[in-house]
Design brief:
single chain; about 160 residues; mainly alpha; about 0% strand
């Protein structure tokens, strides 16, 4: 009897933590949707501009009809995604992202990796890498390697002379 009371109390505590977690997540989503409402429209417009540019590029590829169809299809998909971004609230987008991540985890991992590489490349391309003096650690490693080589040479000559 005491065990069942204890397990019920544990379940209630777990349920309270879960509901608090969901409440916090909902609050974060509400804040994010308020912050990004205006930016969402600008992003959708940029996606639509990208779709239009892709369509004009597809029209210019007359020598390769298969590639032209593929580029035109990509332009249509970008346009559909632009409409989705413009007409969907952030809560629905986040739920759709979760569903996509569960259905196609490798795709999401690949996109995340590519985005990270692109962001890193973008951020580092704007500033030249500063030159810096070699660290103490690096010079200490070189010095210790030189000592090892010197000891080996000495040991070899000591045995040769004996």
């Amino acid at each position: 009897m005491a065990n069942s009371k204890r397990s019920n109390k544990g379940n209630q505590h777990q349920d309270n933590r879960d509901s608090n977690t969901y409440r916090i997540f909902d609050d974060v989503l509400d804040l994010a949707s308020t912050m990004f409402r205006n930016r969402k429209t600008a992003g959708a417009e940029k996606l639509q501009a990208l779709a239009d540019s892709t369509r004009s590029y597809a029209a210019s590829i007359t020598d390769l009809p298969t590639l032209q169809r593929q580029v035109h299809l990509a332009a249509e998909n970008i346009g559909h995604f632009s409409d989705y971004v413009l007409n969907t609230d952030i809560r629905t987008m986040s739920n759709d992202a979760v569903v996509l991540a569960r259905q196609r985890p490798l795709l999401v991992l690949g996109v995340a990796a590519a985005s990270g590489l692109a962001a890193t490349r973008f951020m580092t391309s704007g500033s030249a890498a500063p030159t810096r003096a070699p660290s103490r650690r690096r010079t200490a490693k070189k010095a210790s390697k030189a000592k090892v080589v010197q000891r080996k040479a000495m040991n070899g000559s000591a045995h040769a002379n004996a």
